[in-house]
Design goal:
Largest sheet: 3 strands, antiparallel
Helix content: over 70%
Order of helices and strands: HHEHHEEHH
Oligomer: single chain
Number of helices: 6
Number of strands: 3
Strand order of the largest sheet: 1-3-2
Length: about 150
């Protein structure tokens, strides 16, 4: 029964995609999946991010994000600057080395995305994108219902 549930099937595919990504990113760039996600989010940001905001965006606990960022900072890929508006907070940005790594990682991610989408016809891609958008909207609606 559980293997037939939509949430289980989506989770299974997402895990397979993540495992494959982690193997490639470790081999080619020497980063874990959480490090890749952190670098990708920082690279796409238009302004420095706080640790809390970044953890929320990545969907992980702040303490786990802190460990990931510490490791990246030690490797001089991420820069932590004091937050002038919050003495306890820091702003995160990529260093020059981090930006170079981001460029390689994002290109590898785009290649993987094209390869996965390449197994679908044009009509299947459109239907898949439409279905994902509908499912995300329905999931958001269910969350709002549960909060009442």
């Amino acid at each position: 029964m559980i293997r037939e549930l939509l949430s289980y099937r989506l989770h299974e595919v997402a895990n397979l995609l993540s495992r494959g990504a982690e193997l490639r990113y470790r081999r080619e760039f020497g980063v874990s999946l959480w490090e890749w996600r952190t670098i990708a989010l920082l690279g796409a940001a238009t302004e420095p991010l706080s640790l809390s905001h970044h953890a929320h965006a990545a969907g992980i606990h702040k303490s786990q994000m802190s460990r990931v960022v510490s490791g990246l900072a030690k490797r001089k890929l991420v820069v932590r600057d004091a937050n002038s508006q919050d003495a306890r907070g820091v702003h995160l940005t990529l260093s020059r080395s981090g930006e170079k790594l981001y460029a390689g990682l994002i290109e590898a991610a785009a290649q993987r995305d094209r390869a996965f989408r390449g197994c679908l016809t044009r009509d299947e891609k459109q239907a898949f994108d439409s279905a994902l958008a509908k499912l995300a909207g329905q999931a958001r609606a269910f969350i709002q219902q549960e909060k009442k």
